[in-house]
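Database export, one record per block. Field names are fixed; values are copied verbatim from the stored entry.
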Amino acid sequence: MKNIALILAGGRGKRFWPHSKFNKPKQLLQSPSGNTMLRDTFERLLPYFGADEIYIATIEDLIQPIREMVPEIDMLNYIVEPTGKDTAASIALSALIINRHRQQDANLAIFPIDHFITEKEKFFLSLNNGFQAVQKFQKPVIIGIKPRQNETRYGYICAGKNITEKENKQIYQVEKFKEKPDIEWIEKHKRSHQLFWNTGIYIIPGKKILELVKKWMPKLDQALNKIASSIGTLERGDVIKNQFQLIESISFEYGVLEKINDLIVVDGQFSWEDIGSWHAIERFVQHDDNGNIIQGEHSGIDTKNCIIVNDQGLTVTIGLSDMVVINNGPIQLIYPKNREGDIKKIINQMAKDSQFKKYL
């Protein structure tokens, strides 16, 4: 069965707002390597997959800048959604179209774009182990990373028994998957299980994805059936657009993975960083003597363990700790580090108000 890479590049990167906006989402932002996040991801995969084996899922508004950034990808290898409806819809539509395009069932290796991975050989070894596991067991495979600390921004995997006979392969049956649990859940389960962070890298047969969607997300399945009937016709674009207006916006993790009990996790054993948020830059940017990350002009008293990014003028702080302060000129964003998950909420709230839409 053919192994295919699918890069998910349709999100807006709300956790990086206000630098990541509607007209410049995180795909186009610079990564620690100096490349854009999308270009980094594409180049990371090229030694393992041929360019014709890499697909990119994105939305209509972003197709032109993304094509300019990754000219090696043929237009037929783009999965273009009319609007973003989160990863469940994106992954399901991609599985449907890729299987039709390839005229065969394919194993899809699914990759977010906001990762920073330096140990390429270990990364490729994990992919080898993942493809072997999915071929043998025909179950969804997650590439996991052993946690370095409690982290409520990530999904968590409770590993069960090792299902391989070889000592150098750490591949486990998953006993429980929980997307973004609270600290109490993490503390409880790490006493009784070996835990892994969910990297968001999945290896799943395309046919299996569609089966899971049919079972757990029947409304999305109904939409896919109508889209499938339109493939090869002049009505395909209109049908996809109409169906995407009706389907629920939900992640693949909440829509499918939390609901099933036949997952497998591969211990990634490579260096991995999620760079999709302000909080993440703490691992790449030098701190001052008070634990602050300062970019731009700043003067402060009793300011500790803060992230302060100032693109314009001067930012002055007094008595702050564990805060994020972002000033890009017309927008100032200020919040405690532990409230990062609420950025999406405030953006969704502002999107409903005509007064604030211009800032998104």
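Remark 1: Residues 177 and 257 are 7 Å apart (CA to CA).
Remark 2: The first helix runs from residue 37 to 45.
End of record.
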